[in-house]
Amino acid sequence: MAHVELSLSEVLVPAAGTPTEQEFDNFGQWSGTVSRAAEPCLLIDADTTVVAISLAGCDLLCLGAPEDVIGRPLLEGGLRLVDFSAQPSELTEQETDKIPPLLALHSGRLARGLLRVQGPGADAGTTVDAISTPVLAEGEVAGSLTFFSAV
Predict the structure, then answer these.
(1) Residue at 1 is within a domain
(2) 111 in a domain, yes or no?
């Protein structure tokens, strides 16, 4: 038989002068976290500029070093997305608007999907699962945070 415990505690009220969660620089905190992360992840701002990317993210997405990507638009930073056909070709602009990092940014909602990333060689590409969430600043979408996993 299952055992369930329930405990109640008082609501934590911040002391006077203590910043509330909304007052923290949410975007800045994620930037530092992503830069140091061991997992493949990426943070872009509202203009789709790469603000932070983990080393593992650069490796998985065939982007080189983080310093080569940060400050550049996501789709102009060397990321080559191709379709899932036998003869892969680059995605059209209409199709790239639907990739999870951009979809989360534009919709303000969670987004998930598979991407096919092609490196500098002539390989068929790597399939990557991407899960993205919008990042808010002062109640508005300021960017998106994406975690990747090779499939």
Answers:
(1) no
(2) yes
Contact (Cβ atoms closer than 8 angstroms) between residue 46 and residue 141: yes
Q: Which residue has the tokens 């038989």?
A: 1
**49-56 long-range CB contacts below 8 Å, 24 or more apart?**
49/73, 49/74, 50/74, 50/77, 51/27, 51/143
Counting the structural domains of the chain, the total is 1
Structure tokens at 86: 């036998």
Q: Which two tokens stand for residue 63?
A: 């982007």
Query: What confidence tens digit (pLDDT) does each residue in 48-88 have?
Result: 999 999 999 999 999 999 999 999 999 987 888 998 887 88
* This prediction's pTM: 0.81
- Write the CATH number for 126: 3.30.450.20
